[in-house]
Design goal:
It is a single chain. With 259 residues, this protein is an alpha/beta fold. It has 9 helices and 7 strands, in the order H-H-H-E-H-E-H-E-E-H-E-H-H-E-H-E. The protein has a 7-stranded mixed sheet with strand order 3-2-1-4-5-7-6. Helix 1 runs antiparallel to helix 2. It is globular and about 75 Å long.
């Protein structure tokens, strides 16, 4: 929980991952150098090479952390999702995989006559928590209209056809208790009312997670939805080349539509 009393939506790059990677790089470089000084080059050189590679990856993570910091590309990605979600007064919205509550809280601020429910597993390896969500909502003045529940995106704790809107931002590919990520789309749509709308932002162009784009479209066509549109994320942001890689934004797309 954020103890400073300020809104903190977090960063997609976990600080402890950067710390562990940097510490590992320093250890391997130091050990490799020491072993070479005592003429054990057959051990020292490989350790130094590994340390160098870890150092380069650490620098890349620091670069990503900087790019995703407040006002950066993390906010621009959120904005793409928010622009597609336009609930009416009285609507009830579900945010799947809320993290520290960024999407849920920003929706509640933008639309003061809606109610937002949000779920997350809040796994210990991520730097998010339900307490942080509730604090952020309180500091934003929307605590009375935002409800946070611990749950998995693979088994939503809600009845069929409960919500007017369902949104999810860059979450489905991270869900570890289900292999076929397409099934998460069906589960999200289960709790959406007929005529309700959805906005999902994820790595939909990744063959590893969703198969080919054609297979994904065939799957969506078989679902009980009226219409859908799949838009490449990079069409909407002018990202630098390092952020356009497949492991970052290169496979991201926004899936919008109506049930």
């Amino acid at each position: 929980m954020n103890s400073t009393g300020s809104i903190n939506f977090g960063n997609w790059i976990r600080k402890r991952v950067v710390f562990y990677m940097g510490t590992g790089a320093l250890c391997f470089l130091s050990a490799g150098t020491a072993l070479q000084l005592v003429e054990l080059k057959w051990v020292g050189v490989p350790l130094s090479v590994l340390g160098f590679l870890l150092s380069m990856f650490t620098v890349f993570l620091v670069y990503l952390f900087w790019q995703f910091s407040k006002g950066g590309y993390q906010q621009k990605m959120w904005q793409q999702t928010l622009e597609h979600c336009q609930p009416k007064p009285g609507d009830c919205v579900l945010d799947i995989g809320t993290g520290n509550g960024a999407i849920a809280i920003q929706l509640a601020i933008l639309y003061p006559k809606i109610t937002v429910h949000a779920i997350d597993l809040w796994a210990p390896d991520w730097e998010y928590s339900q307490a942080s969500c509730e604090l952020n909502a309180t500091l934003s003045g929307v605590r009375d209209r935002t409800h946070f529940t611990q749950a998995s995106a693979s088994k939503l704790p809600y009845s069929n056809s409960k919500f007017d809107w369902v949104v999810s931002h860059f979450v489905f590919h991270e869900v570890g208790d289900i292999d076929d990520k397409k099934l998460l789309i069906a589960e999200a749509l289960r709790v959406l009312k007929p005529g309700g709308r959805f906005v999902f932002h994820d790595m939909f162009l990744s063959n590893r997670h969703y198969g080919s784009e054609k297979n994904l479209e065939n799957y969506l066509n078989a679902l009980d939805i009226e219409a859908f549109d799949l838009t490449n994320t990079l069409n909407g942001i002018n990202a630098p080349i390092l952020l356009r890689q497949k492991k970052v934004f290169g496979c991201c797309a926004t899936l919008t539509g109506e049930k």
